[in-house]
Each structure stands twice: as C-alpha cells, then as structure tokens.
Amino acid sequence: MDKSIEEEFLADSLSGSIKITSYIALIFGSILGFFLLNSYFTEGGTSLFLRTTPIRLVFIFTSMVIFLTAKRLTKQRQLVYILTFYQALMAVIYLLTLKQYSSLNYFSILGLMTITLAIYLLPNRIILSQIITVLFSIAFFVDPSRKLEGLQPHEFYRIIAYQAILLIYCNINHCWAETTKRKTFMAKRELSALSSKDPVTGVYNRSKFDEAMDRWISFSKRYGHPLSLILLDIDNFKQVNDNYGHIVGDSVLKNVAAAVSKSIRDTDIFARWGGDEFAILLPNTNVRQARKMAERIRKCINSSSFDNLEDITCSFGVAAYEENDTKQSLLRKVDDLLLRAKTSGKNIVIS
Length: 351
Known about the structure:
Elements: H1 3-43, H2 47-69, H3 76-99, H4 107-121, H5 126-142, H6 153-196, H7 206-223, E1 227-234, H8 237-244, H9 246-263, E2 269-274, E3 277-283, H10 287-302, E4 314-320, H11 327-343, E5 349-350
Parallel strand pairs: 4-5
Antiparallel strand pairs: 1-3, 1-4, 2-3
Helix pairs in contact: 1-2, 2-3, 3-4, 3-5, 4-5, 4-6, 5-6, 8-9, 9-10
C-alpha cells in the first residue's frame, strides 16, 4: 500500500524475478521442443505437421531469446513488458495450434489448464496475469472447445467450472505468496535498520559509518572528487550525566542528533561515533564548504533548547580527504583537530 516501499521491494526482488523468468522460459521452450519432436515422429510429412511447426518454432525461438537476454534487464518496467508479451504469446500460440486441428480430445482441456498455471508461474503483475488468463479462457471456450469430440452440454459447463476454480486457486495462491514475500522483505528491512542504527539517537552507528567511509574514500580516490569529514563532541557532557543522570544525558544526545540531522543534506552520512561524539561524512564537499556546514550546525545546536539545560555546545574538527590519505589517517587528522578545538575553549570549529 506504501508506493515507495513497494518500489523498494520490487527493486530488491528484481534479480530473483529475472532469474525465475529466464529459467522458466528455458523450461517452457524445451517442453514445446519435445512436443515438436514427438509430432515429427507421429505426424511428420503431413499437412498438419507443416502448419503447426512454424507456430511452435516461434514460441521456442522467443523462449530462447528471453532466456539469453533477460539477465541484462535493469528495470522492473522492462521485465513487466517482457513477461506480459511472453504470457500473451503462450496463450496465442496454444490457440493457434488448436486451430490447425479439425477435431480435439480432452487433452486439449488439460493443455488449457497447464497454460493457465504456466502463466501464473511467471512473476508478472497480478492484474496483467488475470487479464491474459481470463481472455485466454474465453477465447478457448468460444472456439476450440467446439471441436471437442462427443462433448455434451453439461460437460461443457463442468469444464468452465473447473477452469474458474483453477483461476480462483491461482489468484489465491499468488496473493498468499506475494504477501509472504513482502512480509519477509519488511522483516529483513527492519532487521537491517536495527543493525545499522544507534539505539539511543536513531542515527547510523559506527559500523555503518565505517562501511560508508570505505566506499566514499574508494570513490574519491578513483575519480578525484572532494570528500570531507566532520567530527563533533558535546562539550562537558560528563558533567550533564553526573549532575542530571543518564536519562537526561540520553535526551541531550537525541536533541543534538536531531539538530544536526536538520542541518545536513540528504547525501551526507551522519552517525554516532561513540559516547558523546558524532561523525558526518560529506561526499563531493571540500574543506571550505565543510567548515561552513560545521559552523551552521554549531549555531543550530547553540540556539536549540535541551530540556531546560543551558550552555549545551559542541566542538568541531573538520578535515578533507587528500590523495594519500587512508581511512585511519583521515580519522586521525580530524580527531587531532577536534582535540585542538576542545583545548582551545570549546564551542568552536577548527579545520
């Protein structure tokens, strides 16, 4: 029901859907290949074989193309287009094949139900699968079913009932499976969020920040883009804990984190570094821009209220990534600058 989370789920499941589509296309194409081989031995040389072979070859060729090219897809919309086309092709190919026969037997009904199940095996949007299977069923009962030998009226209606039951089953099974997939995705999503967030402030934890640093340092080293780091520390935080207790101390941590979060960009990575220290990684930002941001954050914290506590301030160290820096050298550099800020009167930015 949440569109953004649904899109996130579809993006996360895209590779799995592509793999399923690819291998199902290979299996379906191979099965029809065996049917073609069987027809060669039983009907080879007849006009019926000559009429049905080109139709079946179209499906076999399309299946092989989908098997070979599906893995190159990068967007959910592309997959939906291919799946819809393939499902419709399955139905059309079967109906065209039946049209070549002058009379049919009850194996044709089995084929109808098999194709219906096959359509629902493909991970397409449910509404598209429903439209294709309903139209396919109607087309079958309008034309090919009339060729069934010895079919009585009551048997005709019974077959329609069986097909309706099959469609209901396929839809219930599809909805149950898709609901289960989404519940599993949400559980993994929540678990991932818990493992990457600091439990007190709700911002990223140090482990998540380390991953981001490794990734962005590698990116800056490869492409030469600027990268800056801010390390900030709450001034006199130990006194807050000693005088007011850890509950008030945790409240101060939360308020500082909220003030910083309001002042940074969506692309910046903000984390609790440990204790009363926080770190901000600023991609595509030079040291001058990073210093301006640190000053803005410092002023924002100064002007914020913290449960009637006065004089809650922070000290800042700001450094930029340089060509020969490693993660450790950059952290050491910014930590030294923060220490200088603490020993130079606090509530200042040193870069």
